[in-house]
Amino acid sequence: MSQVYKVVVVGLGKRGMHHAAAFKKSARFELAGISTRDPGRLEKAAAELGSPRASTDPLALVRQVRPDIFCFCTPPTVRLDLIKLGIESKARLIAYEKPIALSMNEAIEMRKAVQAAGVRTVVSHQHRYGQHYQEVARIIESGAIGRVHTVYGHSVGWMLHLFTHLVDYVRWYNGGAEAAWVMGQAAGRGKLADNHPSPDHVAGIVHFANGVRGYVESGAGAPDVPEVDYWWRKNRIGAQGTEGFAEVLTGGGWRAVTKDGPQSGEGCMNYELDMPPYVEDMARWLDDERQVHPCNGESAYKGFEITMAVLRSAVERGQIRLPLGPGEPELEALKKALPDRPVLLSTEASRKEYPTASS
User: Is residue 206 classed as helix, strand or coil in its secondary structure?
Assistant: First the structure.
């Protein structure tokens, strides 16, 4: 009989509730505790989730429950302290939201802490579980587009919401190859005041060790995806090869041209479909250390490293070699470096969906 793993979820906004509901519905988990600072939200969530143990004090909660999985879904300003709490709880796996940190310094400290404690981590790049994303991966891996030479991703959403998603899937479509160097540029100060602080527009070139070139872009000046109706789903990620291409639209299916001709299919980001296998793979990894979660924290760390390298390049105006070491916090350095100029938006749709202080 399969082991049932106890889970505590901290943070009960939209994403926290997605996680809690997915754990609750699975036979592999016991939703043993939930926590948030808002007593009213906590009471409402407990009623919806079958009345698990609930507390506004996550430290007291984990000491009572001693979870196998510590999951937190909070704004990015709260990362390192909750990683330390997850380690203190003696959880075997910590699952949390992207971005993994707000600076490379913080990411390095978090990585050292979980490695020293022997704790596994999983980060919410759960779009990997979309069937349309997986079909594109299958086509690329089959060799149907020939030798891959370029991978790309762009979104009108701002950086700390979506850039690490784009980088994660670009790395996936390039077989997980290591990045050798990065060059980047950024513009616009409006979203630096957001709870996911970001330049209004950011673009990066990534040179991978296997020779493949990556292009990643997000924000107000990024290309529109007119086939898709809502900014969060306006993402295009794909690969070009010597004999064709294959790409996914987060909210609009997939399409490809291969040696066999043009192909396409449906698909859309759907938490009800994507979250169950995402959490099930946590149980599988705890069952067997060889079944590493596709959204494992080490992969997320490498994607975040690329993201911060793009910002360092924008500040330093040159190539940035990887791996990155500690340095001046990237967003703080960017605030000093960016001129106060409006960003030229790519479309009128972007103007409506991406309000910025500078626009």
Answer: strand
277 and 188 co-located in one domain: no
Please choose, from the candidates 338, 336, 292, 320, the residue with its C-alpha nearest in 3D space to the C-alpha of residue 104: 320
Of 253, 280, 296, the residue that ends a domain is: 296
Cβ contacts of 341 within 8 Å, gap of 6 or more: 187, 188, 358
**Interior CA angle at 117 toward 72 and 8, to 5°?**
25
CA distance readout (Å), 87 to 37, 80, 91, 332: 20, 11, 6, 28
Other beta carbons less than 10 A from residue 176's beta carbon: 11
Please tell me whether residues 24 and 95 are part of one structural domain.
yes
Residue 49 CB: number of other CB atoms within 10 A? 18
Q: What are the residue ranges of helices labelled H in 2-79? A: 14-25, 39-48, 58-65
SS3 call for 75: coil
Please write the tens of the pLDDT for every residue from 181-218.
Answer: 999 999 999 999 999 999 999 999 999 999 999 999 99
For residue 10, give both structure tokens.
Answer: 């901290």
Number of structural domains the chain divides into: 2
What DSSP letter does each residue of 134-168 carry, written as one string? HHHHHHHHHTTT-SEEEEEEEESS-HHHHHHHHHH
Element containing residue 187 per DSSP (H, E):
strand 179-187
Tokens of 17: 């509730």
Residues 6+ apart with CB under 8 A from 29: 4, 5, 6, 7, 23, 69, 279, 283
∠ CA 267-124-320 to the nearest 5 degrees? 105
**Per-residue pLDDT tens for 84-117?**
999 999 999 999 999 999 999 999 999 999 999 9
Q: Which stretches of 202-254 are DSSP H helices?
A: none
Task: For residue 25, give its domain range.
Answer: 5-126+272-296
Query: What CATH number has the domain bearing residue 88?
Result: 3.40.50.720
The C-alpha angle with vertex 352 and arms to 14 and 203, in degrees rounded to 5, equals: 80
Identify the burial level of 349 via C-beta atoms within 10 angstroms of its C-beta, where 0-12 means exposed, 13-18 middle and 19 or more buried. Answer: middle
